[in-house]
Amino acid sequence: QVLLVESGGGLVQAGGSLRLSCAASRSISSFNVMGWYRQAPGKQRELVATIPTGGTTNYADSVKGRFTISRDNANDTVYLQMNSLKPEDTAVYYCNARARATISLREFSYWGQGTQVTVSS
Predict the structure, then answer these.
(1) In what order do the strands lie in the sheet with 67-72?
(2) What is the pLDDT of residue 54?
(3) What's the burial of 68, exposed, middle or buried (CB within 10 Å: 0-12/13-18/19+)?
(4) 65: exposed, middle or buried (Cβ count in 10 Å: 0-12, 13-18, 19+)
(5) Residues in CB range of 100: below 8 A, 6 or more apart
């Protein structure tokens, strides 16, 4: 079992900033990819940003230039800095960790409980 705990969500006005944190119960370097997803009311869960271990960051077009994903390996924590927030960013944000078993190659995906981000106009 892997535990992911998100924090940092809240209500902000358009143009404001929030920093989300995802604390993992094991070394984040042991995962292939760490990422943030979000799900807005009436919409499918969508990718926001990923930071592969040993790879380059990736962002959804809708957040590129405004959001930054980063990691603190010493504290097994992944962050999502969100600037210039827009009402359309309103969603539940989920931390995700993906790993692959060495022998079976079976892939595992772990999710946090989610944290609500609400951006008002």
Answers:
(1) 4-7, 18-24, 77-82, 67-72
(2) 86
(3) middle
(4) exposed
(5) 32, 106, 107, 108
Which residues have a Cβ under 8 Å from the Cβ of 70 and sit 6 or more positions away? Answer: 51, 78, 79, 81
| pLDDT string in tens for the chain (121-residue length) | 889 999 999 999 999 999 999 999 999 999 999 999 999 999 999 999 999 998 899 999 999 999 999 999 999 999 999 999 999 999 999 999 999 888 998 999 999 999 999 999 9
Q: How far apart are the C-alpha atoms of 23 and 75, rounded to whole Å?
A: 8
| Residues 6 or more apart whose Cβ sits within 8 Å of residue 15 | 84, 85
Given a contact cutoff of 8 angstroms between Cβ atoms, the answer to whether 69 and 35 are in contact is: yes
Distant-in-sequence, close-in-space partners of 46: CB < 8 Å, separation ≥ 6? 37, 38, 39, 60
Q: In Å, what is the CA distance from 70 to each residue of 28, 45, 73, 121?
A: 12, 21, 10, 28
Sign of CA dihedral 56, 109, 118, 88: positive
